[in-house]
From TrEMBL:
Species: Methyloceanibacter superfactus
Single GO term (MF): succinate-semialdehyde dehydrogenase (NAD+) activity
Family, as annotated: Belongs to the aldehyde dehydrogenase family.
Protein name: NAD-dependent succinate-semialdehyde dehydrogenase
Catalytic site positions: E253
GO biological process, one term: gamma-aminobutyric acid catabolic process
Keywords in alphabetical order: Oxidation, Oxidoreductase, Potassium
Length: 483
C-alpha cells in the first residue's frame, strides 16, 4: 500500500465508525493493474445499518440552523482544499486520470461544498396573497429526509460532493455507495467531513461490489425519501422502477450522446480547442464528452486536419507521470467496447485518421483517435463511446445538423461553435439537451444546474436548483385571523 493510500481510511464508514469486514475486494491502479488497497465488501444488512444510522441522526441534524450546518460544511471545504494534492494523488491512483485533471477535480468537488454551505441559508419560502380576509398563506421548505446516493467512478470526488453537500446543507442525512472501482476518495472525503465536526450518522459510506443488492435496499426502504444516482441509463431505469413502490423523489444523471456542432462560420482554432477539451478529458470517459462531432462541409477538411495535429501531440501514459495528458481506461471491458465501436465504423466505411489502437503504455491505454467519414448507421454515433475517440460526421445545412444532433434518445449535453450570434441562439434553443455550450467545450461549475432531458435523466445537480432537489415545500394556511 503506497503512502498516499495509507494516509486515508480503507474501511467503510457507518454511524461515525470505521467498519471492517471479513469479506473484502481489491482496488487496483488501472495504469499498472497493481492492487492498492483492500476495502470491505458490505452487503444488504450493512446498507440497512447505514440507513438506521442516518435515520437516527436526522432529527438533530435537520434541527440545526442553516448557519450551523454551513459552518461545518465550510470547515469541510477548508480541509478538502488543504488536502488537494493528497486527494489528487489518491484519485489518480484508483481512477487513472492525469494528476493535473485530478487536482482540478478536487477543486471542482470542493466548490460544491462551499457553494451549498452558503446556498443552504437561502432555502426561502414565501407568503402568498390571500383569497380571504381571515386567512394567510405561507410556504416553508424542509429537508426531504434520509437520502441515498449512488456515485460513479469517473469523478470520484466531485460526484460525491455534488450529491452530499446539498443534502447536508438542506438538513438531510445521507448514505453513499461509491463505485467499486473508486471507493478510496469517498472514504477520504468522509474522514475529512468527520474531522470538520460532522456528527455521527449524518454521512455514511457503504463500500461493496454487490451494487444491485445495495441499490435494492436503498429503493425499497421507506425511510429513504430520495435517491440520487449517476450512472448508466440501463441501471437508472431499474432503480426508477424499484423506487415506485415507495414513491421516492429521484435525481437521475444518466447516459449521454453529446453532439458537438461546428458550423462553417466558426473560429477554427476555438472549435478545435473546444472539441479537444470536451472529448479527451478523463480519456473520454465522461457523460458530457462530445460523442459525435458534426462538422459542416465547408470547414470539415480543415477541422479534421487540425484535430489530427492536436491529437497527435497528446502524451499517453500513467496519470502520476508529469506531462501525460491521457491516462488509462477504467477496465478491460472499456477497452473492448472502444475497439468494437471503431472496428464497426471502419467496416462500414469510416476512416481512422489517427490512433485507432491500444497504446504502448499498457493494456488499458488507448491511443487518442480521430475517426472520419462517420455516418449515422454506425454504432459509434449511436452508443456512448466512453473512450478517447472523436467521431467526425459531415453535414450540409443547419437543419441537417439539428436533425442529426437530436437523433438520439439521450439529451444531456450539446455543444456548438459559430460566430453568428443569431444562429448560435437559434440552434441552442432547438437542441434537445439539458445543457448547451456555445463556443465552449467545458461548461460545468458549482453555480449552474447540471442535468439532462429525455433518457439522460431527471432533476438537476449544482446551482440553486441542486438544493431544491433535497427540499420539500410545505404550505401552511393560517386561519381565523379576524376572530
Amino acid at each position: 500500500m503506497n503512502m498516499i493510500v495509507k494516509k486515508f481510511p480503507t474501511t467503510a464508514f457507518i454511524d461515525g465508525e470505521w467498519i471492517s469486514s471479513a469479506k473484502t475486494f481489491a482496488v487496483t491502479d488501472p495504469a499498472t493493474g497493481a492492487e492498492v488497497a483492500a476495502v470491505p465488501d458490505l452487503g444488504a444488512e450493512d446498507a440497512r445499518r447505514a440507513i438506521d444510522a442516518a435515520s437516527r441522526a436526522l432529527p438533530d441534524w435537520s434541527a440545526k440552523t442553516a448557519k450551523e450546518r454551513a459552518a461545518i460544511l465550510r470547515r469541510w471545504f477548508d480541509l478538502v482544499t488543504a488536502e488537494t494534492d493528497s486527494l489528487a494523488q489518491l484519485m489518480t491512483t484508483e481512477q487513472g486520470k492525469p494528476i493535473a485533471e485530478a487536482r482540478a477535480e478536487v477543486a471542482y468537488g470542493a466548490s460544491f461544498i462551499e457553494w451549498f454551505a452558503e446556498e443552504g441559508k437561502r432555502a426561502y419560502g414565501r407568503t402568498i396573497p390571500t383569497t380571504a380576509a381571515s386567512k394567510r398563506y405561507i410556504t416553508i421548505k424542509q429537508p426531504i429526509g434520509v437520502v441515498a446516493a449512488i456515485a460513479p467512478w469517473n469523478f470520484p470526488v466531485a460526484m460525491i460532493t455534488r450529491k452530499v453537500a446539498p443534502a447536508l446543507a438542506s438538513g438531510c442525512t445521507i448514505v453513499v455507495k461509491p463505485a467499486a472501482e473508486t471507493p478510496l476518495c469517498a472514504l477520504a472525503l468522509a474522514k475529512l467531513a468527520a474531522d470538520a465536526g460532522l456528527p455521527p450518522g449524518v454521512l455514511n459510506i457503504v463500500t461493496t461490489t454487490d451494487a444491485p443488492a445495495i441499490g435494492k435496499v436503498f429503493c425499497e426502504d421507506a425511510r429513504v425519501r430520495k435517491l440520487s444516482f449517476t450512472g448508466s441509463t440501463e441501471v437508472g431505469k431499474i432503480l426508477y422502477r424499484q423506487c415506485a413502490d415507495t414513491v421516492k423523489k429521484l435525481t437521475l444523471e444518466l447516459g449521454g450522446n453529446a453532439p458537438l456542432l461546428v458550423f462553417d462560420d466558426a473560429d477554427l482554432d476555438q472549435a478545435v480547442a473546444g472539441a479537444m477539451a470536451s472529448k479527451y478529458r478523463t480519456a473520454g470517459q465522461t457523460c458530457v464528452c462530445a460523442n459525435r462531432i458534426l462538422v459542416q462541409s465547408g470547414i470539415y477538411d480543415r477541422f479534421a486536419a487540425a484535430m489530427v495535429e492536436r491529437v497527435n501531440d497528446l502524451a499517453v501514459g500513467p496519470g502520476l507521470e508529469t506531462g501525460n495528458a491521457v491516462g488509462p481506461l477504467i477496465s478491460g471491458e472499456a477497452i473492448d467496447k472502444v475497439e468494437t465501436l471503431v472496428a464497426d465504423a471502419v467496416k462500414k466505411g469510416a476512416k481512422v485518421l489517427t490512433g485507432g489502437e491500444v497504446a504502448p503504455a499498457g493494456p488499458l491505454f488507448y491511443r487518442p483517435s480521430v475517426v472520419g467519414d462517420v455516418t449515422s448507421d454506425m454504432s459509434i454515433v449511436r452508443e456512448e463511446i466512453f473512450g478517447p475517440v472523436a467521431a467526425l460526421v459531415r453535414f450540409e445545412t443547419e437543419a441537417d445538423a439539428i436533425a442529426l444532433a437530436n437523433d438520439t434518445p439521450f439529451g444531456l449535453a450539446a455543444y456548438l461553435f459559430s460566430r453568428d450570434v443569431s444562429r448560435a441562439w437559434r440552434v441552442a434553443e432547438k437542441l434537445d439537451a439539458g445543457m448547451v455550450g456555445i463556443n465552449e467545450g467545458i461548461f460545468s461549475n458549482e453555480v449552474v444546474p447540471f442535468g439532462g432531458v429525455k433518457e439522460s435523466g431527471l432533476g438537476r445537480e449544482g446551482g440553486a436548483e441542486g438544493l431544491e432537489e433535497y427540499l420539500e415545500v410545505k404550505y401552511i394556511c393560517l386561519g381565523a385571523i379576524d376572530a
